[in-house]
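Late entry, written up from scratch paper. The run itself happened at the end of the previous shift, but nothing got recorded in the book at the time, so transcribing now.
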Amino acid sequence: MNHDDALKRAAADARTMGDAPEFASFAAWLRGRGTAGASHAMAAGLNGAWTRRLVKFSALWALVELPVAYWSAADDLERAALAVSTLIWLAIVFRVLKGGATARGVFVFLCALSVLAVAPALPAEYANFRLAFWLSLVECVVKCGLFVVFVSRYIAMEP
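Output as recorded:
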């Protein structure tokens, strides 16, 4: 296909897109609402029992990892940072479970960021500290699952 054919096809597609349905906005997803047809997506979202359990498990897992992280911390400043970060994570989880829209967005972002930060270090942890490897692996799986659940909920919203 040459450039002129591609341009004609794009112009034809643009003319037919005038009747495209209006999709739910990201802000509506954060509030837990969507369009009228989004009830199926809502059932698969945070309102689902398994999603709530997975969110609660992420908070529990942060508490399970804390003693091992304390044990391997280099100094008191690092231990304080671990305590503060765990408290912040628990507060975010609490707000997500209460239905906080901003907390849900922050939660999804931190899940993705956590996986991107921890996953590259897994081979080194496996070679040097097996207990930390298994704890980090479970954390990555849980947070990756949560990210997929929340993002697929947004994608599944229908007009």
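Residues 24-156 form one domain.
(Scratch paper discarded after transcription.)
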